[in-house]
Each structure stands twice: as structure tokens, then as C-alpha cells.
Amino acid sequence: MKSIEELEKIREQAKDMINLRVDNETKTRIVVGMGTCGIAAGARAVMLAILDELKKRNIDNVIVTETGCIGLCQYEPLVDVIQPGKPKVTYVNMTPEKAREVVVKHIINNQVVDEYVVPNV
Questions:
Q1: Spatial contact of 42 and 79, defined as CB atoms under 8 Å apart
Q2: Distance (Å, rounded) from C-alpha 64 to C-alpha 29?
Q3: Distance CA 91, CA 102 (A)
Q4: Single pTM value for the model
Q5: Which of 10, 13, 51, 70 is spaced 20 to 30 A from 101 at the CA atom?
């Protein structure tokens, strides 16, 4: 660190990280499995469909992130929807079309799309 400006930049970055953590506790999160198995099964197209649908509908209270493999490769692509105060819902065998449907039904209308939820095995 060589100047006050550099220190201010570091401070702003730290504040942004703190705000991101707070947002994670108050906003809905959509987590797309982007391990190699998920990508091979089409997770990238699923994530792009989710982002596009959210943008198209001007939804800005949702954070979309990605994660690595969680060990359910046979069900890829996987998408978790985590809403504050509600249990996590894991959608399986997603396609871009199903992902758009989840945005409309689950994110906008608070209706879990049961036929896409991970089976109890």
C-alpha cells in the first residue's frame, strides 16, 4: 500500500463484501451446479436461461451463483433455490425451459415445481 487512495479502494472492497453477505441473508439465492458433470449435462445453458428470465422480468432481488459438484451427478444439471426463512429446494435434470418455468412459478409466484424437485431416495 503506497497511498491513501489504495487504502480507500481496499476499504470499499471490504464494504462491498460485507454488503454481499448481508444481501445473501435477505435475498433469494439461486445456485447452479457448475462442476464438470453439471457443465457436461447443460448447466451453462440453464444458468444463462435463469439470468435471462430474471433480466427479462426485471427481477433484481435474486442472487444467482454457481457451485461445484455436490455428488448427485445422475441428476445434473442441479439448481438450488434458497429463500430466506424457507427450506432449500433442489431442482434436478434441469433444462433451459424448466429453468425459465422455475423462475416464473417458484421465484415470482412462490410455487415449488414439485415434478422437478430431487426425489427422496
A1: no
A2: 6
A3: 9
A4: 0.77
A5: 70
**Long-range contacts, stretch 82-88, CB < 8 angstroms, 24+ apart:** 82/28, 82/29, 82/30, 82/31, 83/28, 84/25, 84/26, 84/27, 84/28
Q: Cell 434458497 sits at which residue?
A: 82
Picking from 110, 100, 86, 119, the residue whose alpha carbon sits closest to that of residue 52 is 100
In tens, the pLDDT along 58-102 reads: 998 999 999 998 888 999 999 999 999 999 999 999 999 999 999
Contact 48, 96 (CB under 8 A): yes
Supply angle C-alpha 94, 45, 30, rounded to 5: 60
56-78 burial code (b ≥16 CB/10 A, e <16)? eeeeeebeeeeeeebeeeebbbb
Taking the C-alpha atoms of residue 69 and residue 76, their distance in angstroms, rounded to an integer, is: 9
Question: Stretch 6-28: mean pLDDT, rounded?
Answer: 68
Looking up cell 441473508 gives 25
